[in-house]
Amino acid sequence: MNWELLFFWMLATVSIGSALAVVANKNPVRSALFLVTNFFVLALFYLTLSAQFVALVQVIVYAGAIMVLFLFVIMLLNLGAPESLRERGGLQAPVAIVLALSFLIAISGAGAISSGLPKSAATAASLEKGGEVEAIGHALFNPGLPWLFAFEVTSILLLVGVVGAIVLAKRRA
Amino acid sequence: MIPQHIGPIDLIPLVPYIAIASILGFILTIVPGLIWIERVVIALMQDRLGPNRVGPRGLLQTIADGIKLFFKEDIEPKAVDKKIYYLAPVLAMIPALAAGATIPFASITFKMDDGTIRTLPVVAGNVNVGVLYVLAMASLQVYGVILAGWASNNKYSLLGGLRSSAQIISYELAMSLSIMCGVFISGSLNLAKVVESQAGPIWHWNVFQFYGLGFLATCVYVISMIAETNRAPFDLPEAESELIAGFHTEYSSMKFAMFFMGEYASMLAVSGIATTLWFGGWHSPFGSIDHFVPGAVWFLAKIGAIFLVYVWLRASLPRLRYDALMSLGWKRLLPFALAILFGIAVVDTLQTPVEKTPANVENASGRTSDPMSAI
Question: For B162, which of A59, A63, A76 is closest by C-beta distance?
Answer without folding.
Answer: A76
